[in-house]
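Supplementary Methods, section 5.1.

A reviewer requested that the exact input to the structure prediction be made available. We therefore reproduce it here, unchanged from the version used in the analyses.
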Amino acid sequence: MHSAIGSRKDFNNLDEDQLLAEYKVCLEGLLEHEQVLKLDLHTQHCNTSRLQHSINVSYYSFLICYKMGWDYHSAARAGLLHDLYFYDWRVKKYIRSSHSSWHPRIALLNAQKITKLNKVEMDAIRKHMWPCTLIPPRYIESYVVTFVDKICAVCEFAERSYAEAAKKVVRRFRRGFVS
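The structure derived from this sequence is encoded token-by-token as follows.
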């Protein structure tokens, strides 16, 4: 299983850590579902797969809600399923309107096909692109998923930028020794 980017937790040993064990309970059966695993075949941001991005959003939404005493179960599930779509958003022919308003609806329909969702989970998936979707989230957990999604996207882009910058520094450093 992918670990959340930036986390020091070993997601391959979920049962050894009480918090990770609770996280695993929240996602019961979803992490092994064929449709969820298929997300690993799609790029989300730079070098990050859609599955990795979804795990990042799921885990950090879970942590925030857990620490605050909110509905961490719904936040974890909504975070994992919020981008459950399979078209390439960079190719316009797959989208009826703007991607930011279209894909939450597709993700919600796909999520409802594989699991029963509660009202918090549906709201978080449907409105995770707010303010691009005009109607704001209704629940605090939906806001958490929305903002964690944005933070994860920025970090995923920054990770690529950081890696590219580091490669340039190494190349320049090596050229200094060669010349």
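The first strand starts at residue 43 and ends at 45. These observations are discussed further in the main text.
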